[in-house]
Amino acid sequence: MDEITPLYGKKEKCLFCHKSFITNKVRSRFIKVIGHDTDLCPIYENNDINPLFYNVKVCPHCGFSFTEDFSPYFSPNTKGQIEAHVCAQWVPQEKYEKERNIQVAINSYKLAAYCANLKKEKHITIAGLLLRTAWLYRELKNEKQETRFLKLAADHYYESYMADDFTGTQMTDVKVLYLIGELNKRIGKWEKASTYFSKVIEKQRYSTEKRIIEMAREQWYELRDTMKEVK
């Protein structure tokens, strides 16, 4: 009997060029989340098998990179931009089709974020790509790049909240507000972080997301104490 491996190939169709290709995914039986960081980064029991590495699908034919969160719709003025800045520059690379290491995973998220910007995807989608990039840099203990991508993600979560473009996704207003607060806390924008944690706490009467409310309250108290010590 053949041994079941963590990775399996899944057939996908590129959203842009519509050609088929195989991308790797991690079998659910090998994924066990044992906790989350305060910015909702999942902590896996076995970090050698990280499903985040395989979240982005990189088309080997044209280079367009995307996730399940991308819309299939392309406005007419974006296709030419993608053709010129992605497809025309693309050199097929087998590394995205094989088992990925953390650097290949980071590159895949950067490609997807670049494609998402050219495609004018929702801010909530771009924010998710940038936040996951920051998580991977955290794993590498690269604080400079982690902070850079946390800031970019915070900006897009803010734009998403203002445009209400998270509606219809798995994200809620409570989670978006919480992440704006938490990411600003991590990059040192404490006053802004405090404001957004307060906005989350104000929703406690109406929200069913009690854990997020409690996390916001804990972070608000911790931040308040830190700010007092600094003063």
From TrEMBL:
InterPro entries: DUF2225. Pfam families: DUF2225. This is Uncharacterized protein (DUF2225 family).
